UniProtKB/TrEMBL annotation:
Alphabetically ordered keywords of this record: Isomerase, Pyridoxal phosphate
Protein name: Alanine racemase
Pathway(s) it belongs to: Amino-acid biosynthesis; D-alanine biosynthesis; D-alanine from L-alanine: step 1/1
Function: Catalyzes the interconversion of L-alanine and D-alanine. May also act on other amino acids.
Family per similarity comment: Belongs to the alanine racemase family.
GO cellular component entries: cytosol
Keyword Isomerase: yes
Length: 389
């Protein structure tokens, strides 16, 4: 077994991703208020809990009312199962080589597994026989995403195969929406129609389907008619709704660093690769030891303000010039009292004076980089120490 060993002592690195589990708990609870009693909430904690730490996120979400946990890879599901958490687990993405190694133990641990093709069903069936335990299977139906999932015309064939296999138990059917973050897009209703007709065909082959699930964070917020038996909530749990939302959600990650250097420069002094920015007045520049190797997107250069905590209080300072691999420059202003060692808030909750300047959000960085908050959060690299508070 390969165990990664950190090359750097986290005590010696200035950058921190500070995780607030209470925010995840509160966000889970807030999303739960949108659901009827019969609808369960799955906390999606894949990608190491969207960069927040899978086990930290899972425990916080369960405290907030989640009764299911969802992860892409079986190895993640196995880690959750070994942690002894009070929730049912679903995993959905595996290929033949690792499946043969890990699926028997995954099924033996009581984890539900999704299948999206006849080949995946065969892998699960083989693993169930090896584990001597019936596999609880959720059939993934491709209604337009074009990724994992059986096509509607394959439903009856797979349904018959599952019905005739003593080691397969149909636990659910699900699909994934392509455009739920755009409530006006007709694609969602088209997918739902395909899904419902596919489920009807599946039910004719296998009998009643215990769980049907469609809704992601966006559909959970905007389409109560799609809540069905289970909703799968991801990005909203971490404080970033993919659509405008009335429910109160709070970001759970704050990315911080510290000033490494402060220097005075004159007007017209160029900054960074490509000289995309030059000072328009004499000013003080601050060097922050964080860059694109830590997760800041280079395409977001020269667009986002950071907050610096100095002796006189919190002050907003724009990031200027290109983002480098390990460092960025911020314009502190000519009258700044900032000095090396002062804390810098890259995004998240700066705390401090409630009337003071608020820190940027992951959404601010996403807009600057032309991407989405999901990518900003999951891009915070492994060399940034996670600190749970």
């Amino acid at each position: 077994m390969t165990i990664p060993i950190p090359a750097e002592d986290p005590r010696h690195v200035p950058n921190r991703a500070v995780i607030d589990p209470s925010a995840i708990t509160e966000n889970t609870r807030a999303m739960g208020t949108l659901l009827e009693e019969q609808t369960a909430l799955m906390a999606v904690v894949k990608a190491d809990g969207y960069g927040h730490g899978m086990l930290t996120a899972a425990r916080a979400a369960i405290e907030g009312g989640a009764t299911w946990l969802g992860v892409a890879h079986p190895a993640s599901a196995l880690a959750l199962a070994r942690a002894g958490l009070d929730a049912q687990i679903l995993t959905w993405l595996f290929e033949p080589h690792t499946a043969k190694i890990v699926l028997p133990e995954v099924l033996g641990s009581g984890v539900d597994v999704s299948v999206g093709s006849p080949e995946m069903l065969a892998l699960v069936s083989e693993a169930a026989r090896e584990a001597d335990r019936r596999a609880r299977v959720h059939l993934k139906i491709d209604t337009g995403m074009g990724r994992n999932g059986v096509l509607p015309w394959q439903i009856r064939e797979l349904g018959a195969a599952m019905r005739e296999d003593d080691f397969i138990q149909v636990a659910g059917a699900w699909t994934h929406l392509t455009s739920a973050d755009d409530p006006e897009d007709p694609a969602t209703d088209q997918q739902v129609e395909l899904f419902d007709s596919a489920c009807a065909a599946l039910a004719e082959e296998v009998g009643p389907i215990p769980l049907r699930h469609i809704a992601n964070s966006a559909a959970t917020l905007t389409r109560p008619d799609l809540h069905r038996d289970l909703v799968r909530v991801g990005i909203a749990l971490y404080g970033y709704p993919p659509v405008p939302a009335e429910v109160p959600l709070r970001p759970a990650m704050t990315l911080t660093s510290r000033l490494a250097l402060v220097k005075e420069v004159g007007e017209g002094h160029s900054i960074g690769y490509g000289r995309i920015r030059s000072t328009d007045r004499p000013t003080r520049l601050g060097l922050v030891p964080i860059g694109y190797a830590d997760g800041l997107h280079r395409t977001g250069s020269d667009q986002v303000d950071l907050v610096v905590r100095t002796e006189s209080g919190d002050h907003r300072a724009p990031q200027v010039g290109r983002i480098s691999m390990d460092q960025i420059v911020i314009d502190l202003g000519p009258d700044s009292d900032a000095r090396a060692g002062d804390q810098v808030f890259v995004f998240g909750d700066a705390g401090g004076d409630p009337n003071g300047p608020g820190a940027a959000t992951a959404e601010d960085w996403a807009k600057a980089a032309g991407t989405i908050s999901y990518e900003v959060l999951t891009s915070v690299s492994g060399r940034v120490t996670r600190e749970v508070r």
